[in-house]
Amino acid sequence: MSGLVLAGTMGCVLFIPGVLLARFIIEWQKSWWIGIDLAVALLMQLVMVVAAVGALRSMKIVRSDWIKISGSLANGTVLFILFWLAYSPVPRKTIGNEMYAKDQLREISWNNAVQYEMQSLAYPDTSSPHLGKVECDYNHLLYLLRPNPEHGYDLAYRPVVSDTSVPGCKVDTSYIIAARPVAYRSTGIRSFLVDRSKQGQRWPQVHSIRIHFTSEDRPATVSDPAEDVELFTHRPN
């Protein structure tokens, strides 16, 4: 009796996770043979539930046996909750790529905040060469903007160039950073945008940035939803 109850419980509880896994495989992996295997497994679960219920209906269940039945129901519920907490409808590689893109946006913003303080309220400019001037070479910013196909995102830095120079270097009054997946739905789903088109704040006031994002196959805009991301792990005094 306990075995029949456990079979019926597990067949019911694991049916929905099985459907979600089959959908995940079909949508992301394009692997037809794994999808067929999961479909057969789902059919077997339905057969197991029907057989267990039919056998239990022919048995007389006394009150003391309901304790065993309750234990089987509790085991099935715990397994379902664990699956629901661990399951992600998006591949982990895609999630990792999106986290990398957001980290790069934060790192670039942090780099610019430092330069903003050092260059008398101006951001570094990368739109043209600086004729070998060491003080005008923003190598770290260029390093952060380098193409990195391994992480599946392209970064674009669009400066608003100032007419003045500090000190003798071309600088930006504001900037916009965009991040888009190299291959939509393959290397990433969301596109990101950091808009610093307004005059920036001095370092002590710069605590976070707003990262706009969209899940559509297009660049993100300032009208898209946004989340605040801490710019500094340890805020300066």
If helices are DSSP runs of H or I spanning 4 or more residues, what is the number of helices?
A: 6
Number of distinct beta strands:
6
Order of helices and strands: HHHHHEHEEEEE
What is the C-alpha radius of gyration, as a whole number of Å? 28 Å
Strand content: 15-25%
Distance between the termini: 68 Å
Structural class: alpha+beta
Q: What is the quaternary state of this protein? A: single chain
Q: How would you sum up the major sheet?
A: 6 strands, antiparallel
Number of domains: 2
Q: What's the helical proportion of residues?
A: 40-55%
Average per-residue pLDDT, rounded, comes to: 76
Structural commentary:
- With 237 residues, the chain is an alpha+beta fold.
- It has 2 domains: 2-86; 92-230.
- 45% of the residues lie in helices and 19% in strands.
- It is built from 6 helices and 6 strands; from the N terminus they run H-H-H-H-H-E-H-E-E-E-E-E.
- It has helices at 2-13, 15-29, 32-57, 66-86, 92-118, 139-144, and strands at residues 123-124, 153-165, 170-181, 191-196, 208-214, 226-230.
- Strands 1, 2, 3, 4, 5 and 6 form a 6-stranded antiparallel beta sheet that branches.
- A hairpin with a 4-residue loop joins strand 2 and strand 3.
- It is elongated.
